[in-house]
Design brief:
It is a single chain. The protein is an alpha/beta fold. It has 5 helices and 5 strands. α1 crosses α2.
């Protein structure tokens, strides 16, 4: 069921998202023995990923990282080490700090032409669908993807999301 939560700022948003994600991941692992998460990029999830990977925060210890499969809902046409890579963001802020097996990290190949990367990722998702009972993803993060956004006080702010 959809749920809207209004928070004061990005820190509060990231904390609320970390708690919700962790709960959904725990439930999926309890039900099926694994969880599938689709990540996003941009400016929205960076603090969330840091919170999830931080050993001093409660969420990291609650997630059974070896039972997690990670996917991406979008990627930029750049190599994985490029500053604008969505995979690169997740690698720097989360994946380097947790123990997800490399075979369970299913990134889009942004360094390839979009048509090739799309074809390859389509095959990855089709294979997942064929092997899955239940939802394709237990958690799916979506980016805002706009060049104009509202800040947390409601004032209009120009700039990238």
């Amino acid at each position: 069921m959809a749920r809207l939560t209004v928070v004061a700022d990005k820190n509060a948003m990231s904390e609320a998202a970390a708690e919700r994600m962790t709960s959904l991941i725990e439930s999926a692992i309890a039900e099926r023995g694994l969880a599938a998460v689709s990540l996003t990029g941009g400016d929205t999830p960076d603090l969330l990923y840091q919170f999830l990977g931080d050993p001093t925060r409660r969420w990291r210890a609650r997630i059974e990282w070896q039972r997690l499969h990670l996917f991406w809902g979008d990627e930029r046409e750049v190599p994985p080490d490029h500053p604008e890579s969505n995979y690169g963001l997740a690698r720097r802020t989360l994946l380097q700090h947790v123990d997800v097996p490399e075979t369970q990290i299913h990134r889009m190949r942004g360094e390839l032409p979009a048509s090739d990367a799309g074809r390859l990722y389509d095959a990855v998702l089709r294979a997942r669908r064929d092997q899955t009972v239940g939802p394709l993803f237990d958690v799916m993060l979506l980016g805002i993807g706009c060049s104009h956004r509202l800040d947390f006080s409601g004032e209009s702010v120009a700039g990238g999301a």
